[in-house]
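Figure 2 data, in text form.
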Amino acid sequence: MTQPDARFTATDPSRPSANAFWEPIIINKKQIAEQAERLLSLDVNDPVERQVRIVHPMACERGQGMAPGIEVRLSVLKPGERTRPFRHNATEVGFCIDGGGAIHIGGKAFSFETYDVWNTPSWSSTWYENNTRKPHIRLTYSNAALLRLLNVHLVEDKKITGITPDEKAQDHKASASDSVKIKDVFVLPGSDNWLMSYERLINPPAVQSDPHLWPWQDVKGELDKLTALGAKYRGRRLYLLYNPLTGRTNGTTPSFFATMTVRPPNIIDRPHRHASAAINYYFSGSGYSRVAGKHYEWTAGDLMLSAPGWAIHNHASHDNGPVYELTIQDQPFHIWQESLLWQESLAAPPSLLGTQAGFETNREEVFASCLVNGTTAEPSALSVAERNELVALAVKTVKGRVPVVAATGSQSLAETLQLSQFAEKAGADAQLVVTPYYIKPPQRGLERYFTEVFSKLKTPAMVYHIPGRAGVSMDVATFRAVKSRCANLVGVKHASTDLAFVTELLATLGSDFRIFAGLEELCFPMMAIGAAGMMNAVGNLDPQRVSALHTAIEAGDLARARTLHFELFEVSRAIFFETNPIPLKYMMKRCGVIPNNEHRPPMAPPTEQMERRLDEVLKGCGLI
């Protein structure tokens, strides 16, 4: 049997590649409507046949994508129709552009309406039905085009995939009698190089991949708040429809992100470019794009390959009302590939997103300062080096836009001095030092301790007063004594229910002494009697409402503040359903703020029962 011969070609990887950009194309609203009518008129054996791929003229026969590796399908269903179930190893994003219906994914059913978005995990049995009285039209974005180019797009068919029914699957674990002991994952001695066994290679840790649906009306409510950023804002007014499964790659699926954008009238983006390709569907308003030097006009109902990879482009809205658009981009795939070069400003060099630092915008800060190594960071479980590293990173990231407050307290005077002096040298603007915990010192010991620490610092300092955790309270007289010897003692974070203490402290040290509310449930009453602000953990979950609460109190609008207090009350109480930050970290992960819910022993993640309880709180507060 003969085989084809391999070719050897000269190459120089340092020379620029001859990339052939796919020119932008616009499939206008009329073309989409005509195709939809044609599909609805077909006499088909199965409604799953009422769909068509939208293929770029430069696409090869195997790929058939609207952009390289990105398949886009237009599908319709008549009222009462349903498709047969199928599954394949592609991940997909669905978007309803007219009508409504339901999708059944892996045994879960989601009802959708116009402009709703959902994701379909790989290898999930999927079928659609139109249970409404009018036809529905939807777009599907899939990585099937890429899989076809790799010759591994597998649709469920025993002849092709060799499927073994679940009930017949076997567990091929090694028996206890095996004599050879194999290490799963380990470091080669004397190096930082790792090896992994075959058994671990073919059995990586499983990550649950769930379908999600993002209702348009809920997303629109959040988007419309971004119009307040003003015409000078340089970033994009958008939200990613984030799937926590994707973690650091910021995706809706492992291949694509889906973002919803609002563009107020007459907004013009800065020209920029990125290695990932982008496809936009505009469903309100009109505007134009400039891509690789060419001008393209678009309007509501148009579908556009709006940003071929690495083509310089920008978008702008006309003055006839806001633009709303869905953008599909293969950014997560590129982050995993370490290929996502992104140039946010043509005046600055590109960055390799995912491995290098990204870009800043001029978005107004929600908060007046940044607190590092507070309770949520579990500082008692961190080493001195780790706490210092976090302070340095915060200072570098914030870049002077807001003050950085470093929590530098410990049980040990020596360790507190070490942490505080490092933070000052690293550029922290102020220190927050907790009363030494567990040892329960007398008031004269606290006076000496804080005097010793604050006298060695030039930056402003505050006491973290948290009797419930530290096991010790600090008297007003002790505050007065330290203040008389250390002018840089400027305030206190008061995490206690004792409101009389707040009044007495202000009466003794004056209104310039800054008291910050440290208990979420008491922020409103504590600020109402004179506290300067709050150090509020709920700000990690709902920064807009927490900031609005502060603003309302400062403005004397107590009616508005009271309303916000009640809106935040349940989630504020939930922080303490278990030891903080156990509930908070779970809720942060659930809301997509952090990718993982990690704790260091003796702390631990919440139980499943607690997770369900916290989910109900988040739903009630509109956070999920």
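Caption note: Residues 166-170 have pLDDT under 50 and may be disordered.
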